[in-house]
Predict the structure.
Amino acid sequence: MTLKWLLAICSLLLLMAFGTAHAASAPPGVTGEIVGQGGQRFPIAVSPLKNLGNNTAESARLSTGIADAMVHDLELSGWFKVLDRSAYMENAQTSGITLGTFDFKDWATIGAEGLVKGGFSVQGDEVAVELRLFDVYQNKERIGKRYTGRVRDYRRIAHKFVDEIINQFTGVPGVFNTRIAYVSNSGGRFKEIFVSHLDGSEKFQVTDNHTINLSPAWSPDGRSVLYSSFKDRNQTLFLFELYSGKEIKFTPRGGGRYLSGKFSPDGQTIVATMELGGNTNLYLLDRSGNVIRQLTKNPGIEVSPAWSPDGKQIVFVSDRSGSPQLYILDLASGNSRRLTYSGSYNTSPEWSPKGDRIVYTGRVANRFAIFTISVDGGEPRKLTAESFDSEDPTWSPDGRFIAFASNRAGKYHLYVMQAGGDNQRRLTGSGGDDTKPHWSPRLD
Amino acid sequence: MKIRIRVAWHVCGLMVFCSLAACAPSATNKPGATPAPRSDSDASTTDSRTGEGQRGGTKESETGSSSLKQMQEGKSSATPASSPMKDVFYEFDRYDLSADARATLRANADWLKSNPSARVEIEGHCDERGTNEYNLALGAKRAQAAREFLTTLGIPADRLSTISYGEEIPVCREQTEDCWKKNRRARFVILQGRSTS
């Protein structure tokens, strides 16, 4: 079984490497289909970290905290089976963390094929962490990294190393050093914007205006969040810079209202939906909110635009056929074509980073489910069950995962799954409804 | 078997080499990457409760308060039976006016005609199903449909403004058709000039 899985991973690697070099010849969506199918996951052990410095109140917490953060990410990816810590035989604080200073047999015995070990030392507010990935069968070190950072950002170090581990196995770094922007009512009646890491850490409240704030969207540099708000009574867009706290308001002309906006991949322009006189159309804006040009002119509903990764096309929702359906607008020609024909209610599209598929919310059997469809059309793939609602999908920056909101546990929470629909796991657990996730680009 | 595993790891190693060659690893976790907390002044650049006050001369009445303001004050935005302007209701994902809706709008128009200084904001609302953005657009359509019908009945357009709250301010929060029906509505907020006679 193990051998089969190793070979599966590595044949996947070849496939992905091939796909990267010759993107046009790679069949769309294949990687998402192979990975994780059948439930065979790579068995890996993540040892608590060894304290290399002075014993402080924090050291015990860091020892398991960094390991726990890595375990969370590895499990979330769906590609690893992390062996239970209670089965580990050696003492993490007394055994070595470099090659030759510990016994691989202690790990082979419990079935580990990969092993993560590391150490840390705290100096004031700073922590230095070294982490290594070992091949238990080969008795070899595969990755060794050293990180320094603030103690309270220790989880980010764990995310970065897991991204390296995933790079080792798949040829593409993981996406755990990213954040999700989302809307939460925190159990109350107002909807505010939040950002946090995938594991819920470093949660930051962007808005606190006690009104309705919606549709958060990252700038491609990961430094700003664009969102719509009723805080000045009439709904419009605001661009909030996370690091400086600066914010600018977009004032629509002619009594219009901005409902939502999305940055172009180059970060220079924004496509926004503006409602004017009851009609909603798409507009191209500059970064300050000035209209460059109107993109659609229909006497109906045109909403939820999202860019193709090359910035040349925009997928959006229009009711011009009588029900909400997805359309693709070609910016150069101004022509649009209908993409979805099955189902009577298809909304909230997002274009995959690879460019080949579009994920969206569709209505089926009086419920909402997540679908993907090829940009060339064809039969959509349903990724979530219709025994509950799943909405607002967003791609990870590598296109291998999709985050979304679902009410399968009662209230709406954020979930993540592999792009083929496998390994659906809950991300948030606040007391309220968490909705409208938007996945950040990779962060520094 | 061991040999084949070795081969597999070698392939992995090759991949690592490729990816390392493509981008030099950054071994430092940059400090200062946590967002600065917002100052109080940032968080409240505008008092969002002043909207109607800014128009001046607002007389609070049964429907003299926007749904947003009602929500902020923790009150229901349901239109009381005593209100002279009645809600208009819509089918799922529709904004056309039923016979009932037209009858309600005619009665609302009569009241507006006998209160010629009254200005009204028409709020479009939706049930919770569907996406927030689409529902905001749909609510705008609903409010506009009501506004246009009132103008065909002779109400000057400049007395009628519109706003959409989409699915954001429901009057009923259960997941039943009865409840959804109540939420798919146009609500009329009397802003000023209500006859005192």
Summary: Chain A touches chain B through 90 residues (CB under 8 Å).
